[in-house]
Amino acid sequence: MLILRKDNKFDNKSIEELKELAEVLYNPIKTVVQIRKPDPKYQIGSGLVEKLAEKIKEEDIEIVIVGNILTPSQKYNLAKKFKVEVIDKIELVLRIFYKHARTKEAQLQVRLAELQYELPRAREKVRLAKMGEQPGFGGYGDYEVEKYYQKVKREIATIKRKLEKVREHRRIARKSREKFDSVGLIGYTNAGKTSLLNALTGESKESKNQVFTTLTTTTRAIKGIKRKILVTDTVGFIDDLPPFMIEAFLSTIEESADSDLILIVVDASDDIEEIKRKLKVNHEILSKINCKSPIITVFNKVDKITEEKKKRILEELDRYIVNPIFVSAKYNINIDLLIEKIIDNLNLSIGTIETNNPKLISYLYENTEIIEDILDEDKHIITFRAKEKDVNRILKLHKIIA
Questions:
Q1: For the segment 134-153, what is each residue's pLDDT rounded down to a tens digit?
Q2: Which residues of this UniProt protein bind Mg(2+) (predicted)?
Q3: Greatest CA separation found in the chain?
Q4: Which residues are annotated as a binding site for GTP?
Q5: Cα-based torsion angle of the residue sequence 313, 318, 322, 326 in order, rounded to the nearest 10 degrees
């Protein structure tokens, strides 16, 4: 059973995404949407709570998933009314992560995310558990409030230390690979990153049409070329991913984000607004982790769209797209062109100039990728990225006109 509440906005895609997430673990049988301001006691309105309580009993529903983040008291109150376990979207994602966490590192990352979600709620959950056990609150009543809070804090600190060792190990491993070019696969969950990794490298890493099947990194070399270029696949992104989840999976996200080149993988068969939403999520997360590597936007599943759809994507989403190419990882369409594009973009260089010449500034914005533009008194200090020969030519030109 699913409930989704959006403030004054009905969002079909959010509902579909929540249902897709739920299907990884459960069999959703009912979806209810309510558009209203959050109710402090239940999150949804009390009238709807009463109606749903009857339905849950009649239809033998075992769990309720709420699309919005619940406070411990809201979760407790709903569980008391419904007589079944109630979880929110974040708890659902954490349970999916647990299902797919196969390595010790992934298990530590998931546990860290769970504890960081738990910490601000720890005192309240114990207090509520002592008032009377409700589904989902079993066991908390055995703790003293402050002792449980401190226990969570200590476990977080322990896991962070363990993961820092993993991150340090990754840094050392990356240093040993620095002589090779690196490409990171970034994208919304279920965009086809693992399928693209297989197509580029000739590997056969298991690829499922299901969200969050990849939680740990996989690095392989591109096949069929003399130059050694390493490609890394890692955890997929999702909308509204809380900062604590990004922090928990930082070591794996960094593995891709620190690459010489980023491939943002997008499912081209989504509708235009959905592609736009997912591209924004990708760019926001890359910005949060301060990633400044050059980007290729890879529209996967081109076999599922028309030429007209391709044209619309390029025209309507121009501001969100960097260096686009359309491919099909499944049918090996344009994979050779993508490899050529990767090699071409790995030959980029970075230059920095200090200028107040409007023509040169305009030229840089139109013909290069601007990494940073700092205005210092009356001059722009611009760091830009372009092909090596173009960077050298621009720097030489700047010396002449300076």
A1: 677 766 656 677 888 888 89
A2: 194, 214
A3: 81
A4: 187-194, 212-216, 233-236, 300-303, 328-330
A5: 20
Q: Are 237 and 141 contained in the same domain?
A: no
If asked whether residues 363 and 342 sit together in one domain, one would say no
Binding residues for Mg(2+): 194, 214
Return d(Cα 255, Cα 231) in angstroms, integer: 10
DSSP conformation class of 333: B
Measured CA to CA, the distance from residue 147 to residue 151 in angstroms comes to: 6
The domain that holds 241 is classified in CATH as 3.40.50.300
Tell me, what amino acid is at 286?
A: L
pLDDT digits (tens, 9 = 90+) for 329-344: 999 999 999 999 999 8
Range of 58's domain?
2-96
341 with 220, same domain: the answer is: yes
Residue 159: name the closest of 120, 119, 118, 109 by CA: 109
Binding residues: 187-194, 212-216, 233-236, 300-303, 328-330
My answer on whether 317 and 200 are in the same domain is yes
